[in-house]
Amino acid sequence: MEKENNAGYVITDRLSVGNMEFVIGQSENAPAKFVTWRCNKGEKNYHWGHYSNDRLTALEDLCNRSLDEIHHVRSLQKDVDEKPVRQTEKKSHETER
């Protein structure tokens, strides 16, 4: 399998969340050895790079960015799930609040 490259960095790790992907790139020759990027799933248009010199920092950033996207996707699902449902009749033993 051919290694994927972007802007002189070799893509070493990838996480997908919904329609987004987050990747880590590594370069021995760049001033910052590691970068995390995001892109639309299935595309190779990487953007919003976060650069670091430490692999653990890059890995933590990859996880945090992915978690942020998970929270975003969940909030969108919650909005859809919370549509009001019409109640047909009240139960007599329930008190109104």
What do you see in this structure?
It is a single chain. With 97 residues, this protein is an alpha+beta fold. β3 and β4 (34-40) form a beta hairpin. The protein starts with a strand and ends in a 16-residue tail after the last helix. The protein has one helix spanning 55-81, and strands at residues 5-6, 9-17, 20-26, 34-40, 47-52. It is elongated. It is built from 1 helix and 5 strands; from the N terminus they run βββββα.
Q: Which labels suit this protein?
A:
97 residues; alpha+beta; five-stranded antiparallel beta sheet; 5 strands; 32% strand
How are the SSEs ordered, and which strands pair?
Blueprint: E1 5-6, E2 9-17, E3 20-26, E4 34-40, E5 47-52, H1 55-81
Antiparallel strand pairs: 1-2, 2-3, 3-4, 4-5
